[in-house]
């Protein structure tokens, strides 16, 4: 039996991160992106430069007035529609640019779009292409395969969880340490205008549209070959300079932030210097942050936790926070920074493997309540091919938080979240179909395949609580013991408990 569901995606007056991501993905799915790209007149009337997978600003504004995406899972077809005014479309497109999801390939330093008829040509960045793939993976959409299998799809953004109510990034000290490790990379990423570009993944996932790890561990599922000859189309000798005004500088996240080999400040020479501008640039491009201020806030954590030491006048004047400017210089702190970073050059003594450890009294609830431990746990589940359990549990938590503060005004948001949960975890053949008790799963499917005006939220909440408890017990019995005894947990724990 085929079930058809139709819903209109709501767009808030103050867009949340998920709104921006969903509207962006729907726009790209609505555009006829091709390797030929759109044409832009330059250097004369008859001269045209084409940028692969580019599109005109005016075309995007028109498409955003009426976008539609159809999701097909098993016998259920869900059609999502969304439309915005010209003013709202321009506002969203500007947000896409600020989030480093698109850039202007003809002028990579451009930061303002102008009006709808300005003739600006836009192109998805490496981060933007990753967002498109993530949307397709989560919703089982097959589209733009040529783009997703190309060198343009090289970024694996670090995923940051958000509070359901405030939409703020969930933070903890352990979270800050883990993110800082990824930020600094496995070794100093020293900028060299004549050096080789960052390496690209040499092998794509076997199933491009099957959900993979979308967490801090996501880059580990791809291999990188230093001798591989592929070069990113985003690579540029000068636009990747840490002080460059280029809107987008990074096309991979695994190498870490670009640093200067040496800088002299007041007659003293420092190695591996990082600018405040580079900190924000890496965070906004290599994570799934949407709003630039979020990058500054997380950068402040690096300073607050004593991971970065200010060395220039302007950074010393504001030593308690990050100064996001090119004149603000920082180095790894002598203790915390080097201990967390674990660069090979950071110590002259050989690093001993962590000693075998036991449970330490860590319970499932402790892991689920701490952003840092939860990310380590997600990495483990990804390797064990059962990450969908944690993802499902997290989505049910979001629903519970929203439901408890629900009103008629935010009912559309709850309905949208329900359909997302169904399409991702419960629909037959869904990207991350859950291995749940048959009777409980059938009950959920029945409740979630109703038309929006027939959805029974109180009953769904009751059944969701049962499902959440079942998944919790499943992770506690099967996944927790393996996680605690894994080498990854032991290494991660030794890094976090400095």
From TrEMBL:
Q: Quick check: keyword Phosphoprotein in the entry? A: no
Limits of the DEP domain: 253-334
Q: Name one GO biological process term.
A: negative regulation of signal transduction
> Which keywords does this chain's UniProt record carry?
Signal transduction inhibitor
Q: Which InterPro entries match?
A: DEP_dom, RGS, RGS1/SST2-like_Fungal-DR, RGS_sf, RGS_subdomain_2, WH-like_DNA-bd_sf, WH_DNA-bd_sf
* Coiled coil regions, renumbered to chain: none
RGS domain spans which residues? 363-489
Q: Which Pfam families match?
A: DEP, RGS, WHD_Fungal_DR
**SUPFAM superfamilies recorded:** Regulator of G-protein signaling, RGS, Winged helix' DNA-binding domain
The lineage's top-level taxon is Eukaryota
- What protein does this entry describe? RGS domain-containing protein
């Amino acid at each position: 039996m085929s079930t058809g569901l139709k819903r209109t995606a709501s767009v808030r007056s103050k867009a949340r991160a998920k709104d921006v991501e969903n509207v962006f993905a729907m726009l790209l799915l609505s555009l006829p992106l091709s390797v030929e790209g759109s044409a832009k007149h330059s250097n004369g009337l008859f001269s045209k430069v084409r940028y692969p997978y580019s599109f005109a600003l005016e075309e995007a504004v028109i498409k955003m007035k009426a976008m539609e995406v159809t999701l097909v899972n098993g016998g259920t077809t869900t059609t999502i529609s969304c439309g915005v005014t010209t003013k709202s479309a321009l506002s969203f497109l500007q947000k896409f640019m600020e989030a480093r999801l698109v850039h202007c390939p003809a002028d990579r330093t451009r930061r303002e779009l102008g009006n709808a008829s300005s003739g600006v040509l836009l192109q998805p960045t490496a981060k933007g292409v990753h967002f498109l793939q993530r949307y397709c993976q989560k919703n089982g959409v097959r589209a733009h395969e040529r783009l997703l299998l190309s060198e343009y799809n090289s970024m694996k953004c670090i995923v940051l969880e958000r509070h359901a109510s405030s939409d703020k990034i969930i933070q903890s000290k352990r979270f800050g340490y883990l993110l800082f490790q990824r930020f600094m990379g496995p070794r100093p990423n020293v900028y060299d205008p004549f050096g080789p570009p960052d390496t690209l993944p040499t092998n794509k996932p076997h199933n491009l549209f099957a959900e993979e790890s979308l967490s801090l561990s996501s880059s580990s599922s791809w291999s990188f070959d230093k001798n591989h000859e592929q070069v990113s189309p985003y690579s540029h000798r000068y636009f990747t300079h840490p002080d460059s005004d280029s809107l987008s500088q990074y096309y991979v996240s695994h190498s870490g932030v670009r640093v200067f080999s040496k800088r002299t400040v007041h007659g003293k020479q420092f190695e591996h210097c990082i600018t405040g501008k580079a900190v924000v640039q890496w965070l906004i491009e290599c994570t799934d942050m949407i709003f630039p201020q979020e990058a500054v806030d997380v950068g402040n954590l690096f300073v607050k936790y004593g991971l970065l030491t200010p060395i220039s006048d302007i950074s010393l004047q504001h030593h308690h926070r990050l100064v996001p400017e090119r004149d603000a210089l920082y180095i790894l702190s002598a203790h915390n920074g080097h201990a967390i970073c674990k660069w090979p050059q950071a110590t002259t003594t050989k690093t001993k493997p962590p000693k075998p450890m036991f449970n330490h009294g860590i319970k499932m609830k402790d892991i689920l309540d701490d952003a840092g431990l939860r990310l380590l746990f997600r990495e483990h589940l990804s390797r064990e091919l059962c990450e969908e359990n944690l993802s499902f549990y997290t989505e049910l938590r979001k629903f519970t938080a929203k439901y408890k503060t629900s009103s008629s005004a935010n009912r559309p948001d709850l309905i949208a979240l329900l359909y997302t949960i169904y399409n991702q975890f419960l629909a037959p053949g869904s990207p991350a179909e859950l291995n749940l008790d048959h009777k409980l799963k059938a009950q959920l499917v029945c409740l979630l395949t109703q038309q929006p005006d027939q959805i029974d939220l109180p009953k769904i909440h009751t059944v969701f609580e049962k499902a959440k408890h079942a998944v919790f017990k499943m992770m506690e019995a099967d996944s927790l013991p393996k996680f605690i005894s894994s080498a990854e947990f032991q290494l991660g724990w030794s890094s976090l408990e400095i």
